[in-house]
Specification:
With about 270 residues, the chain is of the alpha/beta class. The protein folds into two domains: about 5-140, HUPs (Rossmann fold, 3-Layer(aba) Sandwich); about 150-265, HUPs (Rossmann fold). It is about 40% helix and about 20% strand. The protein is globular and about 60 Å long.
């Protein structure tokens, strides 16, 4: 896990994203890839009037991100990590996917309560489902990454197996790992997963819980709080994305309410 791609944009979640990305980069003596995205304004209905206004708004956005870059580059020079910077203009999720070819991990927010033009849960979901790379979705109030305690949200699905495999380098830095099964399905048993991890010298405590009021996501979130987990690992979109978009799903619950960073893969 050497190449860490982080979304840069001057918004309330930027500090949390950058801090986790810096902490993980240092952990693996890796390389930080900063992608600064200037977001075009939503097209206005009146083309004759809207074209000029859109151009002005885009120019303001580009200027704002140029100022953001100057400020952060001064900081990065003193952070003691290898880094690079790229500027793009476009939608967030496609921009991240396009830049992720040589990334081992993508860092975004799981949700932002005050974001100018995009639902960050949708951005995180699209990147998880379509990039082919693991994603760390970070709460906006995070100030440091705590890798010593991890909780794996296990259900035996292909997605949860993929998330665990991608997270192996992180798990090897944990002192406590809980493999928490709320509703098992699929072919991978919790014991088989624990045995797999033990061969990497990762020793987990398997626990099985009944969903509280039938809500798997909220049950997992409550357990993460009780363990004081520094991060969670979960498969992203174990059901079809259409089903989860219409009816919710565990992925959506975790992106909305998880108390700690959530490491996801699809």
């Amino acid at each position: 896990m050497k190449n860490i791609l982080v979304l840069i944009h001057d918004d309330p979640g930027q500090e949390a994203r950058l801090q986790l990305a810096l902490d993980v980069t240092r952990m693996f003596n890796g390389h930080l890839m900063c992608l600064d995205v200037a977001i075009p304004p939503v097209a206005l209905a009146d083309e004759a009037f809207g074209g000029g206004v859109s151009a002005i708004l885009l120019a303001e956005e580009v200027a704002s991100e140029a100022s953001n870059r100057k400020r952060l580059e001064r900081r990065l020079k003193n952070e003691g990590v290898s880094w690079e910077w790229a500027d793009v203009t476009g939608r967030l999720a496609p921009s991240l996917r396009a830049a992720s070819q040589f990334a081992d991990l993508i860092v975004v927010n799981r949700r932002l309560d005050d974001f100018p033009s995009a639902d960050m849960r949708a951005v995180a979901g699209e990147v998880i489902a379509r990039s082919g790379k693991p994603v760390f979705a970070v709460p906006e109030n995070l100030r440091r990454f705590r890798p010593s305690c991890a909780m794996i949200a296990w259900n035996g699905s292909t997605a949860s197996m993929a998330a665990v495999r991608h997270a192996l380098p992180l798990l090897q830095h944990a002192d406590r790992v809980f493999l928490t099964e709320v509703e098992g399905r699929g072919e991978g048993s919790a014991e088989a997963a624990a045995s797999y991890l033990s061969r990497y010298d990762i020793h987990v405590r398997v626990e099985r819980l009944a969903p509280e009021n039938g809500e798997i996501g909220r049950t997992l979130i409550g357990r993460a709080v009780s363990h004081d987990a520094g991060y969670m690992i979960a498969g992203g979109f174990g059901h079809s994305r259409l089903t989860e978009a219409l009816f919710g799903g565990v992925t959506r619950d975790l992106l909305a309410n998880a108390p700690c960073p959530v490491f996801m893969a699809h």
